[in-house]
Design a protein that fits this description.
The complex is a heterodimer of chains A (309) and B (751).
Chain A: H1 11-24, E1 28-29, H2 44-47, E2 56-65, E3 81-90, H3 96-106, E4 116-120, E5 123-125, E6 130-139, E7 142-153, E8 156-157, E9 163-168, H4 169-177, H5 198-216, H6 219-237, H7 253-272, H8 278-299
Parallel strand pairs in A: 1-2
Antiparallel strand pairs in A: 2-3, 3-9, 4-6, 5-6, 6-7, 7-8, 7-9
Helix pairs in contact in A: 6-7, 6-8, 7-8
Chain B: E1 3-10, H1 15-35, E2 42-48, E3 51-57, E4 66-74, H2 79-89, E5 97-101, E6 104-113, H3 118-131, E7 152-160, E8 166-168, E9 172-173, E10 176-177, E11 181-183, E12 192-194, H4 198-207, H5 214-231, E13 235-236, H6 240-247, E14 254-259, H7 269-280, E15 283-286, E16 293-300, H8 309-338, H9 342-347, E17 352-354, E18 358-359, H10 360-375, H11 382-391, H12 399-403, H13 410-418, H14 423-431, H15 446-465, H16 479-493, H17 499-514, H18 521-537, H19 540-552, H20 565-593, H21 599-606, H22 614-628, H23 631-654, H24 670-691, H25 695-703, H26 706-715, H27 723-743
Antiparallel strand pairs in B: 1-3, 1-7, 2-3, 4-6, 5-6, 7-8, 9-10, 11-12, 13-15, 14-16, 15-16, 17-18
Helix pairs in contact in B: 1-3, 5-6, 7-8, 10-11, 10-15, 10-17, 11-14, 11-15, 13-14, 14-15, 15-16, 15-17, 15-20, 16-20, 17-18, 17-20, 18-19, 20-21, 21-22, 22-25, 23-25, 23-26, 23-27, 24-25, 24-26, 24-27, 25-27
The chains are: A alpha+beta (309), B alpha+beta (751).
Amino acid sequence: MAEKTSKPSSFQEVILRLQSYWASHGCAMMQPYDMEVGAGTFHPATTLRSLGSKPWAAAYVQPSRRPTDGRYGENPNRLQHYYQYQVLIKPSPPNLQDLYLGSLEAIGIDMALHDIRFVEDDWESPTLGAWGLGWEVWCDGMEVSQFTYFQQVGGHDCHPVSGELTYGLERLAMYVLGIDHVMDMPFNDPGAPIALSYGDVFRQTEQEYSRWNFDVANTDVLFKQFEEAEAECEAILSQPETDPKTGQRIIMAHPAYDQCIKASHLFNLLDARGVISVTERQAYIGRVRALARKCADAFVQTEAGGHVA
Amino acid sequence: MPDLLIELFSEEIPARMQAKAAQDFKARMTDGLVEAGLTYAGAQAFSTPRRLTLALDGLLAESPTVTEERKGPRVDAPDKAIEGFLRGAGVSRDDLEVRDDKKGQVYFAKITKPGRPADAIVAEVLEDVVRHFPWPKSMRWGAGSLRWVRPLHSILCILTDDAAEARVVDLEIDGIRAGDTTEGHRFMGGGRFAVTSFEDYQAKLKRDHVILDPQERADHIWQDATSQAFASGLEVVEDKGLLSEVAGLVEWPVVLMGEIDEEFLGLPAEVLQTSMKEHQKFFSVKNPKTGRIERFVTVANIETADHGATILAGNQKVLSARLSDAKFFWENDLRIAQQGMDAWIAQLDNVTFERQLGTQAARIRRIGALASDLAGEVGADAALTAQAARVAKADLSSEMVYEFPELQGLMGRYYAQAAGMPDAVAAACEEHYRPLGPSDQVPTAPVSVAVALADKLDTLTGFWAIDEKPTGSKDPFALRRAALGVIRIIVDGGYRLKLDRYIDAQLLRHKISLNHARASEGEIDTMEEILDEVAERGVFGAAFHAVVDRVRGRDGAPDTEEGSLLRTVGKRVPDLSTDLLAFFHDRLKIYLRDQGIRHDVIDACLMLDGGDDLSLIVSRARALEDILQTEDGENLVQGFKRANNILSQAEEKDGVEYSFGADRKYAEAPEEKELFDVLDKAEAEIAAANAKEDFAGAMEAMAGMRGAIDAFFEAVQVNTDNQVVRRNRLNLLGKIRDICLQAADLTKLEG
């Protein structure tokens, strides 16, 4: 067991400790993807990089949006915008569980005092056409992470298999810091000259987005944008492999995948507006999945996807 | 004789898979070893969250030498044939023996398969078992290709001989080399250690805080939980499924009892229990005096310096957050319930039950109509039944059921009570879903029975109407369960009702709503009129024709010609109805087969009374089954079959049906005359018994003909040259067939 570490004092310290822990264990410190996504898994550093044969190790914070979870900043732990910490290592190392437990110690969870459990929870993303086996990790009965061995992404078998760790940062930090309401959590050092709470940073935005998500977002526009993103994704992928200008083989897997991400988020917004019926829901999910599949097909034809010319 | 110990050590195995995995491991290993000639004295298998373990004692040290003799070609056979035989048998020509055979001199080879050491066999069998293990779901990890339930880390495989010397079995699977070491508890263990025998292994595991035997862990949890509860004057709510699941989540169970915050104690016990079990895997602890759930028991996997205080505090916090949600739902729901649940019922207008079958609200209206039709049949009050059907599914709109779908019905009962509705209505909210499975009770309160039957029949007729019947293993709407539910409610309750008309009526209701968009007003009105007429006449066909004839003369009458919507519906409903009834018959056979009644016995009784009075079919089948156990019954069937065979052959040959009634005056032999008397008597008795629904009496009367029939066949030749006598005798056999058919259709019996 590693040496006992002191407790962090703020939300950002939890993040910083995870960053430095995973950096010290060889992960490339990626930055958040610059698009609206529902979860850290959507970052191309996970979705696309889990495909193909090339080794990969990355960790990053990903701001994530779940419009239906908006509660105007009033619920103690439900937010429409929150942060996930994501680690992806391919191939999954044999000591991944130990590495993960080390990260909990790094943020001040004492393994001798807490009850850590790996409880079956198989992960599936119908929109990404992805699934894996693993657990939700419990700390004293609370789910603090999702731990998954990817088996399939975008309809492709994962070979080698990636190990994915996803930490719900707000919930985990609240537990470590002993905070009951997310808005009360210190965001920076509580002793700083300008001490900010999570509420100082995000209460107003939660209200604004909750109102927009639930009642204002123009659904006609969103439907149109969904169609456009879908069409653009397909159009990108239907281009010839060889770029007529440079004469090089350039498959545009990433730009196409951006459109897939867009379509997925637009679907989430439409869902929050309550304009998608139960039966339509499946059809929309199927459409996004079809895009994800095509992007995966394209990515494995690229160099980063393990393609050898 | 050596003992064998194997441990497959992996990352956390899902609790629900452990018990079966241990069984499979034992069965597959022992089968493989025995097949290879290695027998053993005893076998035990165990599982923990991180390991599958198998201990065999008294294993043979090597498989026995087996000698086999193989017959070869004749000595004068071509060389090629002889060489081929030598190659196949793996012997040389000198080893062959020549013996005399019927066909001349023949070569014989004696093949000796030497025994093999246990090590080699164990290694082979274990590799095969690991590579083909029947996990419900398995995975790959890292860069390897081996599949296991979660990453497999190490294999311990040792043979311990009589001198207590242990040796590792030489074995490697996908880079994992078998050894003699393992490790204990993830947090309380002291690193890897070597073991020399099963006893040594089990003791060292315990030292390193792992209880190997899941039963021992479960017992420990239960004893500790009950004694902690007892000490506080409370008792743990028993839940065997939860106990075995929790025993599969820990290697070193530490039982902790915590308090439920006072503010949540007003929640219904089932809500507390469900929330704690589903989300937290907690046991509920109740106060036996009040029946209230006041505390919880959680099982940790670690002993801590603060005796679990931190763990308990954390769990309590999570529970409070969960129960705050539940309480919020409950209080919101109660407000709406107290206003009569109308808001919920209105909401169901926006909830789709199934794309084609429409909304939940439409479904509830249809169920209400059918439940009212059925109320009289099952002795239910009409007004209460209508009220119950209206509110029975209102709780689907409640927040609590949205959160915990498994509480549907039960919440409906609470909310109906809160709304001040009569007990029979509140009970029906919960009971109309029953039976939920083959072992669940059927509803018996009349209002609940009416709504339960209507609910299930509406589902069945609906999916029949849109042609979504179960096929093979696919039954996404649980239609088989619904049909079995109808059968059990009717048969167990002894209800006498002819299902056909209700199926017809409900199919028609579905047809009306399915065609609502495209049908004209006149067509809809006419179908509604047919519905009323079915209620009146009880027969769809007659009702349909009566109404069609009636409306034809009216002004603006809808199209009733061939190919019109009304005609199509008029044809389709009876077809679907027949098909659905056949589905009921199939389910009935499976249901009765489990009660020891043969399927052909049921076939013999199915269509006697129209086939839609299930209680009647079952009574008749039971009576037939009983009579077939008697000597008379058994012989009668033989006699009947003989009569029927002769008759069928003659009818086929002559191209006529011999059912004109035989004439006594052509009877020649006394046995023939006797048979006339016996048949007349039996016919009267069967008719009388049938009229009283005394099927045992009917069967007995039928079996009573056996002596006369046997004597007749003994003494009389049916196919004589005298055509008049022959025809008369055939008609006499026809009479046997007709009379038996009044009691049961014996042609359906097998064997």
